Amino acid sequence: MQVSSLNEVKIYSLSAGRSLPEWLSDRKKRSLQKKDVDIRRRIELIQDFDMPTVSTKIKVSRDGQYIMAVGTYKPRIRCFDTYQLSQKFERCLDSEVVTFEILSDDYSKIVFLQCGRFVEFHSQHGHYYRTRIPKFGRDFSYHYPSCDLYFVGASSEVYRLNLEQGRFLNSLQTDASESNVCDINPVHFLFAMGTAEGKVECWDPRTRNRVGLLDCALSSVTADTEIDGLPSISALKFDGALNMAVGTSTGQVLLYDLRSSNPLIVKDHHYGLPIKSIQFQRQLDLIISADSRIIKMWNRDTGKIFTSMEPEYEINDVCLYPNSGMLMTANEAPKMNIYYIPVLGPAPKWCSFLDNLTEELEENPETTVYDDYKFVTRKDLENLGLAHLIGSSLLRAYMHGFFMDIRLYHKAKMMANPFAYEEYRREKIRQKIEETRAQRVQLKKLPKVNKELALKLIEEEGEEQQVTRKKKQKNLPSLLKDDRFKVMFENPDFQVDEQSEEFRLLNPLVSKISEKRKRKLKMLEELEAQEQEEEEEPEGKTSDAESSDSSDDEKGWVEEVRKQHKLLRQEEKVKWQERFKEDQQTLLKPHFFEIKEGEEFRSFKDSAKKQKLMKKTLGDRLKLEEKLGMLNVSDTTVGSKQATFKLKKSEQQKKQQEAEKQHRQERKTLRRPASHLKSRRGRGRLFH
């Protein structure tokens, strides 16, 4: 699946990727899918959604279950069932199809307008009837109230074929020399046709009279447009009862209100190519117009571009799946494109999994890599000696690193490591030599990394093959041949460290077996050093020797474990002695600490007392507090016990209480003489 974004609108191309030819067998297709990553990762929404050479028209049935497309070569129609995500049927025709119309809700009634003036009717079982019109046809429309087919083409007349009576009716005589397209309004059934002279004629099917004429060629010429020749009408589409969009052969799209002869807006594609298709998207008020090169989505009120798509091949037709964000195109290539735009609407019911898929892709976006820039981290800049460029215009900050010009990166790398190219060249030559060696007759050679592990796996593989031959079972895949574990025998970072503590403690369990492998390894290395063409296998031991080895393993593995433990203890002792010597050599200097104001220094014994107290049980602590008078336990009338605690006051609180007490006493002493004087004054007044 290919993802593109324009104006912050994500477009998912569901048909991107390589396609397989039809003549390949199913077995060959399956084998290619296993080998080729691009084929395996592609999304095939509908199986075999393509044409042999070219697809010309594509439509969706009214019930939304069937997608029908016509193409060449040979001329044919293919019907795809969306519920089964596969092809329903294929029918070949006698001549190429100009256009077709689905008359029923499903595929049971179809009308084809063909190149040789033929009109062919198909029913559910296949071909039903075939007739001819007087002139070559270019387009037709179906009038549902009267069951009439209106054909326009290389003539000034509009031919009418009544499907109820099964005969041609009187044709409509127009002023145009030729007509290219036509359409019928779905609300009031007004018939409109676009002429080669750049005009649109509107007819009333009830009275068979012309009721309007629009000169679109004159209206399409504006100050910004450049037109070569007279523009003709190449596309026509109604929207609702009053709106109509007209496409010209010079690449302009005109939006009309039927009550006015002047267009509401004129949109130019700026390619000078005829407009092939026009679709309306009502949820976002968009118009989807397409020429053979580009599909543009723009706002119908302002003309502002919403987004656009440029497929790889020329476009012949565009079909918007109703009430969804899916878009399908018929183009000049075997594969028909399918696009999904979540902004336009949800995925159809038959492929609702697309919503979940696109949400996951948005949650885990892929990093963008630019061809002209190189992404480097801060560590890479330090290695290249370019850390001083951080903050300058030469580096552009992005996520956890920077983007820098690829030319500057190559120059800095050459200066930092001038022999990098020679090392790269040597590595490439070595890889080429190894590839040529791989084509020769392969001998049993061990990898450069983890040779003992590789030898162990080879031995186990040989034993398993013997067991499976006896039991007639399938052989299990080897780790040496598995690509997932390939790096373990190539990258030296994955080398097993035999001096590590974990390996040395586990090693005695397989010590005797590893000794055998070491002997084999020595013999193989000697053979490789001598560069012998044929490697001789090391002579094996007799069954008695093997039995003695197994008995030695059973008896001596405990001794080996003890031996390893002793060695580890000795190493730890040596390390401890070295640390002790370093500690003795270091001189300890006294550190002074300042005590805050209002606090007193306490002895270090208080902390030790607290630690001892915390180690005691809750019962012992309660007894101790009861002795100190901080806890009072009393029995209640119900039979339960009641405990009251007194909080221990700190020295600062005690000092504060003493100061408050002293302050109260001073105030009492000051108040006594004043009260005494008052009483004396009162007495004097009474007696006076």
UniProtKB/TrEMBL annotation:
Ranges where the record places region Disordered: 528-558, 636-688
Gene Ontology cellular-component annotations: 90S preribosome; small-subunit processome
Gene3D superfamilies assigned to the protein according to its UniProt record, in alphabetical order: YVTN repeat-like/Quinoprotein amine dehydrogenase
Domain named Nucleolar protein 10-like second: residues: 369-417
InterPro entries the record matches: Beta-prop_NOL10_N, NOL10/Enp2, NOL10_2nd, NUC153, WD40/YVTN_repeat-like_dom_sf, WD40_repeat_dom_sf
Superkingdom of origin organism: Eukaryota
Keywords assigned: Coiled coil, Nucleus, Repeat, WD repeat
GO biological process terms, semicolon-separated: maturation of SSU-rRNA from tricistronic rRNA transcript (SSU-rRNA, 5.8S rRNA, LSU-rRNA)
Cellular localization per UniProt: Nucleus, Nucleolus
Basic and acidic residues composition bias: residue spans: 648-663
Biased composition (Basic residues): 664-688
Main location: nucleus
Domain Nucleolar protein 10-like N-terminal: from-to ranges: 1-368
Similarity comment: family membership: Belongs to the WD repeat NOL10/ENP2 family.
Designated name of the protein: Nucleolar protein 10
Gene source species: Nyctibius bracteatus
Gene name of the record: Nol10
